[in-house]
Amino acid sequence: MNARSQVFELSLEGRQVHEAVSGIFHTLLFHRTLGKFHYKREGSYSVGTIGFEDVTCDFVDFTYVRCASDELNQNLSKDVLAFSEQLRSADGPRQGQISLEFYQKKRGHWLLPTESIPWEVWNIKVNVVTLPNEHERQKYRESLGDMLAEKVMAVAASIKPARVRPQDAQPAGPGPGLRHKLRGRPAVQLQGWLPDVGTVKSVGRTTVRKLLKDTLAF
């Protein structure tokens, strides 16, 4: 399967990184998230609705919509914030990339493990800039808001909901699934599993794995 790939390039003040990246990724997750499945009988199911909420940024003239899920929002915010802080504290040119990846889980044959096949990857390249005075910061705050609004509209227009419909919806077995993964340079990543959620962070040679057993509920 050839993964669809998209790249956004942003020049941001350090304080704007978290909000700008979160706005784009939350837009993607909102459009790619399905409500909880309710199985009636074999081959028959219904899909519940997803709650949503508005978020108004503090350092950009921009408001976006995200899923009303505390667990999802906390996981995303934690890793985007880590990427932002490491980017802002870097010596020399402060540049980095963070990615959101969706994949399908495919059962392996016999002793072979389950495969994770990416089908869509969204990359955000960030360049941290320093503006000379408050007047320039205010002007850039406004223009950045317009730029993010255009990117969010582009995301909404390009997403095809049919791509995330389950191919073989059954009440038992793992079936097709989605993973979203954040990769930052320096290495910061989050992996979200539906229905279970797991996070992995890598900093140098240290890896911390945390498994969250509760399912996402919307």
Automatic annotation (TrEMBL):
- Its GO biological process terms? autophagy
Xref: Pfam families: ATG101
Q: What keywords appear on the UniProt entry?
A: Autophagy
- InterPro entries per the UniProt record, alphabetical: ATG101
Q: Which family does it belong to?
A: Belongs to the ATG101 family.
The record's PANTHER family line, in alphabetical order, gives:
AUTOPHAGY-RELATED PROTEIN 101 (PTHR13292:SF0)
The protein, known as? Autophagy-related protein 101
